[in-house]
Amino acid sequence: RGTTSLTQNNQALFVVDGVPFNNNNTNEDRPAANETTATQNDGWGGYDYGNNAMDINPDDVESITVLKGAAATALYGSRAANGVILITTKKGKLAASGKKRIGVTWNAGVEMTQADLSTAPHYQDQYGGGYGPFYDNEGVPGAEDYYFFYADLDGDGDKELIAPTPEDASWGHKFDENLMVVQWDNLDPLNPSKYAVERPWVAGANEIDYWFENGIQWTNNLSFDVANDKGAMRFSYANFDQTGIVANSRIMRHNLNFQGTYNFTKKFTLETNVTYTNLNAYGRYGTGYDGMNPMQQLGQWFQRNVDLKRMEEGWLRPNGEQLSWNSSYYDDLHPIYADNPYWTRNKNFETDGRDRVFGYVFGKYDITNDLAFTARFSADVYSTYQEERIAVSSVDPSYYSHFTQNFQELNTELMLRYNHSWDNISLTAMLGGNFRQDEATTFLGQTVGGLVVPNLYTVANSVSPARVTENDVNSSVNSVFGSASLGFKNFIYLDVTGRNDWSSTMKSPTKEDPNEAISYFYPSVSLSFLLTELNGLNDISWLSLLKLRGNYAEVGNDAPPYATQSTYTQNTSYGNYALFSVNSTLQNPDLVPERTKGWEVGLETRFLNNRIGLDFAYYRTDSYDQILPVLVSPFTGVTRMWVNGGQIENTGFEITLLTTPIQKKDWRWDLNVNWWKNKNEVIELFEGVDNLLIYSAWDVSINATVG
Known about the structure:
- The protein is mainly beta.
- The protein has a domain at 489-707: TonB-dependent receptor, beta-barrel domain (Maltoporin, Chain A, Beta Barrel).
- The protein is built from five helices and 34 strands.
- The chain has helices at 70-73, 208-211, 295-298, 308-313, 341-347; strands at 13-16, 19-21, 61-67, 84-89, 100-113, 149-151, 160-162, 176-182, 198-201, 215-228, 231-243, 250-263, 268-282, 327-329, 332-335, 351-366, 371-390, 399-421, 425-451, 462-488, 492-503, 518-530, 543-557, 568-574, 577-582, 585-586, 594-607, 612-624, 627-631, 640-644, 647-663, 668-684, 691-697, 700-705.
- It has a 17-stranded antiparallel sheet. Strands 2-1-4-3 form a four-stranded mixed sheet, with no helix packed on it.
- Strand 29 and strand 30 (640-644) form a beta hairpin.
- The radius of gyration is 31 Å and the shape is globular.
- The chain starts with 12 loop residues before the first strand and ends with a strand.
């Protein structure tokens, strides 16, 4: 439902079986391999490492529910300001009284994938490589317009026409099958059988479609469950193996899951669910305007006379260096702008992996028939590594980086639940508290100035002193929350929720106690009417449901860690002297949480025993006190400063068509179609600021502008 924060988190919160699931990624905020400060955010390169939701085994998922709007998410805290993806996994089910049950399920699948070339560039077949007639070859037969180099390569006394390899465009000499030219793959003197061999000046036969391969994906899932009338458990194993659509790319994942439930007494139940995931990959695709992304040259900078099959066959020279179509000169074979894409895929590839454990232990004790106490401890722990390399003989300086990240989130949650019905009144209530601890440690080691020894990829193999960065980020949130749902005659329902958070990232040193966290409260209230419970409507056989609803809610969003307190960064030492620097963005001890207020009205209908339905919603949200890093004068010693300011408004409506085309005893098929429209508008920014630069590259920028 639109962007609610200009600079902070805008993704939905994933919740798996009631456990918050970290779905962060490392695709951004990392220097590119060419040692510039450009990041993937700005479109300058980097690898697509995906997000952490890929650790979930789809075969373990029983259902997915999307919660939209602030009222539906107020109980999940500030991270749920943009909605919640509720995932419920499969669990073992109790057997009938006095019975036992054992079950085994196995399924396997294979899927073939191909690149969608509908948006691929269409190449012209009239002109070959070159920028234009720039060479002083006057009087050369067949080269009157001076499009080629002209030299005696093989020493036989006759000069040959040589393709203009330094030029990465196709505005050169018109194709002519009778014109013989020495091309890029015949310029290597270490390959005497091909050196100085001429061939016709024609378009390459194998175009961009040759670059892509047929991918294949194998999946295997095995599950085992056993149960009696007091307990049940389920164990599953899944294997995922995918080969990509370009050379030297593969992702492999293993999932192990155990879930168990046992009723120790009629009042006490214990449940646990633990998942282990191991993921390994290599050759992920490069992105953006970067040499690690071969589509940069295949889609923009290229010579039409170059054949992809010849590049695949001739990318490696006998001395271990690369041979590119884009060499600096006919006697200097080091590439000037573009690596051979097959060199990129076979030499400049990345490797990565992740080990992860997530799950919970849940206990429930029924104090009375109406009152229950529950306790849940959950953990999400993972360790990931990423290696990126650039080989000696590449366009960019040789390079190696090793990145590791260790993350853990621990949640302890206690709740009292109450459920009771009177003659015409029903009440469901809950009161609870949660303590959350997050810790993320990262290490990034990068070579500087190239590699001393080719093909040795270690940080210690750096020409200049290596660049090493370590971070340890800790945060915590304490929360109390509650809800109450009051129903009258199954016709009208009033729901109220409230949550109060104390976030460690919002501590203010201007208070008497600088370690005291800022408290922020956000409530919600909703009212719904089941009109089909009214006399006159409950007798209509084809009308299954007619529901009118409305709600109002507020949600907060805290600041990133250390945005309120200044910290120092330790830099590479100068001799025996340690060097430190302050952050280029000035911290602000007076920051307050971002806030989002929203309301929604809706109408929901069902017809023909719930086989067809329609859901309509109109909403508006206002997000204010945005946490913004606004530009300040560099004469202050910093470039930006964290401030509160700005307001974003989202208005829109959604229409969802709900259908069940097929419904049998053993299975059903639901088909839903959703149409929506959202208008997002920046109402105001910080005082004196009417434009905020979000990202920029070249002459293109993404801005948040008032109005």
